[in-house]
Fold each of these.
Amino acid sequence: MLSQGSGRTKHITLIDPDKQSPEIAAKRALVAVECGTSAIFVGGSTDTGSNIVDATCVAIQEALELAMFASSQHPDADEDQWNVPVILFPGGAHAMSSHADGILFMMLMNSTNRKFLIEEQLQGAPYIAKTGLQTIPTGYIVCAPGGAVGEVGQADLISPDDTELISAYCQTAEMYGFSTVYLEAGSGASTPVSLQLIKTAKSAMNCTLIVGGGIRTPEQMIAAAKAGADYIVTGTITEEFEDLQLLKERLNSLISVL
Ligand code: 1GP
């Protein structure tokens, strides 16, 4: 579902179901897909209930299906453009939906609290097994400044120049068999994950590398891509625009540089 495939860095849009109604979330997701985003992550906040997560996944899936159907009626349109996965990015075992295409099954590797290392996973696994949600085994590593997720997740933050430590975390992730590593600076972070950490992570392992948190400009997108990110996640930007046309312009300016 997420792979290093073409070698070109791709963009992922994060939608936090807590930040808008499911209808608005679906409209925002459509704009993002139109701009070329490759997947929609649904999640983020730690206390969002499953009902809101589920309603948001349903609304996004329905909107994508409708757009795909509309495209199929036009000989010049590319209906495959709308075929993007909706993937859960859960704050915990409570934030699940069977209407997603998959789930980042994460270990917050640098948490000091066993809740985020194994307990939430133990609670979520039976539901995932029952619903058959496709799992993406992911090592989630929170880097400074870390923001809310660093605090709530009680992460021992990785400092921007600690290449030795990030390298060991990435090697560990690969040895555990994780397919993916997500370097997170925190939603709305004042500074994104350092380029040094991205470069080191990329060269330390063969896992798919996701980078997110505080990325807001085309220059930051280009730098993270050059440093080795396979996927770049942006979330906050999508929530800043009520006007969908303005959102489209902003997202286009970011995604088109990849
Ligand atoms: C947060 O990495 C994501 O989990 C996205 O961060 O909201 O800062 O874009 P932003």
Note: The chain has nine helices and eight strands.
Amino acid sequence: MAAVQLGPRQRPPGYPDVLSPVFWRDDRVVVLDQRRLPSEEVWTAYDDADDLLRAIREMEVRGAPAIGCAAAFAVALVARLGLPAIELRRRMHAIAGARPTAANLGVAVHRMANALTMERDPVAEAQMIWAADLAACHAIGKNGAALLPDEGTVLTHCNAGALATAGYGTALGIVRAARAAGKRISVLCNETRPWLQGARLTAWELAEDGIPVNVIVDGAAGHFLSRGEIAAVVVGADRIAKNGDVANKIGTVGLAAAAFTFGVPFYVAAPGTTIDSSTLDGAKIPIESRSADEVAMLAGRHLLPDGVGARNPVFDVTPARLVKAVVTDRGVSTAPYAF
Ligand code: MRU
């Protein structure tokens, strides 16, 4: 593996013509280290699937669709090792489970496994998965832009943008498409403790595109919703159950409940690969828990009194009844959902 540190707005050679956090170039998987944004842009070229698996687990690349793409590329790296079938299956199983809530990983690995069975080129297949995700994001943007008013503020949570997908984004794809259509949309973004995907990532990519964005602490969202300052809440998803219940970054269900209380439309944007129709409802969605240190530490300092623990579920489930519509690449769906 090779790390390349670049200055602001510099991209590695062979970079696609969109902002993309993970892509295949010259027999390697190139990943933007999202833990170091916005202060540094560090791109790492991986040629080893175990290193890439670690990058997924450790949040170097994150966001359900982007880790789906990374998982596909990881399988392409494993496939060239010529392993016995049982070992290949074991490695694919580990990749599919690297982040258990994100449906896109399992979908991507399943598609790669089929491609291998059919003796299709794994690299070409993984690149098709990447390209399909980029196309899906553009379609989500087009389908969702019509839901936004000509002028107003969209509240979002976490990062469901270019950095969380092959490019363009889901929730932020809708913002981008609305602005491209001439709508005067600005963004208010929850900081999203503990990883600060909102403050660091959503703010960074919107600022790069010249889209007006302000960051708020997570606890301020209800305040802005109650004042009538928000035209719509738009978030992404990690997994959507058959009945329309939505798993997304921890904090989403509280945001949806507040939006419902104050009569603000709450939209979920996701590609078809995030819909898991084999999971009947949200109670059955696996919720990833991460280290308590992610909550207990801030900027390298331990915050909590001695002997006090922390809990760190990193996703929650929003019941379908709080969701005004789910925007996918196929269109806009409303309750009763039957994905
Ligand atoms: O833990 P993360 O940063 O991978 O969580 C990301 C989210 O919760 C996103 O909202 C979701 O994956 C949708 S991204 C288009």
Note: The pocket of MRU is lined by residues 62-65, 158, 160, 164-165, 170, 197, 236-238, 248-249, 314 (CB under 6 Å).
